[in-house]
């Protein structure tokens, strides 16, 4: 935590939230939610191996895309959001991890088992995001859980519907 504060130039807790927590949260939300549809569509349509490959590709691709986007969207000078390269790295790594965690259950060859394990992992990811939002952004935990879960459910539904078509 101290190292992140030093790298980001955070001088106080509010600056730490702006320069570290917010980019990490954006990445984790995007990585967790945006990768659900392609992974679950691949799992339903083609099975565990396809879902694993799609999951790895989307997690890595989304991580690069989000990291690059964050780094290029703001130099940090006008907004005091800190060094662009640091924010981009934080966002990119968090995005990759967000997509990677629920891709790994598809190492399990049995599709239904892999889907069940992935569902549990997604629930843990969404709960973690809600807790971080509650802790650092002072959003009440129940409303944070509802907001985060709603997004996840919508995207999983899209992926499952497309995969079943």
Question: What would your notes on this structure say?
Answer:
- The protein is mainly alpha-helical and 165 residues long.
- It has one domain.
- Helices cover 82% and strands 0% of the residues.
- The protein is built from seven helices and no strands.
- Helix 2 (13-34) runs antiparallel to helix 6 (111-137) and helix 2 (13-34) runs parallel beside helix 7 (141-164).
- The radius of gyration is 17 Å and the shape is globular.
- The protein starts with a helix and ends with a helix.
List the helices and strands and how they pair.
Blueprint (H helix, E strand, L loop, with lengths): L1 H7 L4 H22 L1 H11 L1 H26 L10 H18 L9 H27 L3 H24 L1
What's the overall average pLDDT, rounded?
A: 90
Radius of gyration: 17 Å
Q: What count of helical segments does DSSP give?
A: 7
Broad shape: globular
Summarize, please.
This protein is mainly α.
Which descriptors would you attach to this protein?
mainly alpha; globular; 82% helix; single chain; 165 residues; 0% strand
